[in-house]
């Protein structure tokens, strides 16, 4: 079985790469579990000073939940999968050192939620971030719309409404550098 998460260490910096490029790094149950394990292990590393989260390949940071896999899941398995994505987002949001999302290509749905959970998002010219599920009346499952959206759009929500562009934002249209600054 292929490794779904790669970890590269360069001194005090860890780069965590979601490694499902053929699936646009979609969050399968295995990728979610492996990400949570990696983040848990790295959070205990007292030598670590920075964590970078990225996706393998050029097409996507993370396209969200693996919709092909989700079609085969029971209702209980779907709930567990959504909870695991939320746990990964919570692990990123509460990570003990600054976290950076290095975004190329798509960061949609759960992928956008992962990016929002990081302290800083650095987006390439080809980056597309957003919540396309809102177009069909589905709320983001891991709470990115409620819990962490102000980290991306500003605490008053006036900087940029994700919904005003059908739930997506092209990085080339508007660069938004956000640093929560709550880690001291």
Question: How would you describe this protein?
Answer:
With 184 residues, the chain is α/β, with parallel strands linked by helices. Helix content is 28%, strand content 21%. Strand 1 (5-10) and strand 2 (13-18) form a beta hairpin. The relative contact order is 0.14.
Give a brief outline of the structure:
The protein has helices spanning 29-43, 67-70, 75-93, 110-117, 149-153; strands at residues 5-10, 13-18, 50-55, 60-62, 99-103, 106-108, 120-123, 128-130, 168-170.
Task: Break the fold down into its secondary structure elements and pairings.
Elements: E1 5-10, E2 13-18, H1 29-43, E3 50-55, E4 60-62, H2 67-70, H3 75-93, E5 99-103, E6 106-108, H4 110-117, E7 120-123, E8 128-130, H5 149-153, E9 168-170
Parallel strand pairs: 2-3, 3-5, 4-6, 5-7, 6-8
Antiparallel strand pairs: 1-2, 8-9
Structural features:
alpha/beta, 28% helix, globular
Query: What structural category do the secondary elements indicate?
Result: alpha/beta
Beta-strand portion reads 15-25%
What characterizes the major β-sheet?
5 strands, mixed
Order of helices and strands: EEHEEHHEEHEEHE
- Provide the residue-averaged pLDDT: 81
Helix percent reads 25-40%
Number of helices: 5
């Amino acid at each position: 079985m292929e490794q779904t998460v790669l970890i590269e260490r360069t001194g005090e910096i860890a780069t965590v790469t979601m490694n499902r490029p053929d699936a646009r790094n979609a969050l399968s149950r295995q990728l979610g579990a492996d990400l949570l394990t990696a983040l848990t292990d790295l959070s205990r590393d007292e030598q670590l000073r920075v964590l970078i989260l990225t996706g393998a390949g050029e097409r996507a940071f993370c396209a969200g939940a693996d919709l092909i896999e989700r079609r085969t899941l029971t209702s209980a398995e779907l709930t567990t999968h959504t909870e695991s994505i939320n746990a990964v987002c919570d692990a990123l949001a509460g990570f003990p050192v600054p976290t950076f999302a290095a975004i190329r290509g798509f960061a949609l749905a759960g992928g956008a939620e992962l990016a929002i959970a990081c302290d800083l998002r650095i987006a390439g010219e080809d980056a597309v971030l957003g919540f396309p599920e809102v177009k069909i009346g589905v709320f983001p499952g891991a709470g990115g719309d409620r819990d962490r959206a102000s980290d991306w759009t500003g605490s008053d929500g006036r900087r940029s409404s994700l919904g005003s562009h059908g739930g997506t934002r092209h990085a080339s249209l508007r660069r938004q550098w956000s640093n929560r600054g709550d880690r001291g």
